[in-house]
Amino acid sequence: MIEMVSQPITRLVYAGGPVLVVIAATAVLLFALALERLIYWRLRYRRQRRALIRRWQARSEHVSWSARTLRECWCGELIEALRVSLPWLKLLVALCPLLGLVGTVTGMIQVFDSLTVTGVAQARSLSDGVARATLPTLAGMAVAVVGILFTSRFEQVVRREDQRLHDRLTRATEADNA
């Protein structure tokens, strides 16, 4: 069973070259960070948000400048904890197409090497080089597109959560003043 799975993967890695392995490792890291942020947002962030709202409601005074400044600091800390991995996600997304280009260059070098060594008549060596040139580019772009989709969606979630947090704290303040 393992041999049936590993053989196509081995052929794919051979066809795409060593850069394809680096792209795969980058993709695993990218998606692991994305999954960690999703789990944090779904589980831990929501508990922290509820605790912050309770802490704000427990305060006796909400109107003064110092109270509003404290509220902004608390909100900023919580939202910053939510967006902490975004720069790393963006870096990995930007790295994927560049790695794909490195794969293209190394594949084209192989094509040119096969042309100089064997001549134009060896179609098999040319096709191997072209595959080695195109597979990493395709893989890098595919990982980057999925990473961009997640990153932009998560940035939208962070903005929405920031607005919701401020709205809930404002409603808690208004309820206390009424």
From TrEMBL:
Entries under Pfam families matching the protein: MotA_ExbB
The protein, known as: MotA/TolQ/ExbB proton channel family protein
Signal peptide, first to last residue: none
Span of domain MotA/TolQ/ExbB proton channel: 60-165
Transmembrane region(s): 12-40, 88-109, 129-150
Subcellular location as annotated: Cell membrane; Membrane
Alphabetical UniProt keywords: Cell membrane, Membrane, Protein transport, Transmembrane, Transmembrane helix, Transport
Keyword Transmembrane appears in the UniProt entry: yes
InterPro entries: ExbB/TolQ_transport (IPR050790), MotA_ExbB_proton_chnl (IPR002898)
UniProt similarity note: Belongs to the exbB/tolQ family.
Record membrane topology: Multi-pass membrane protein
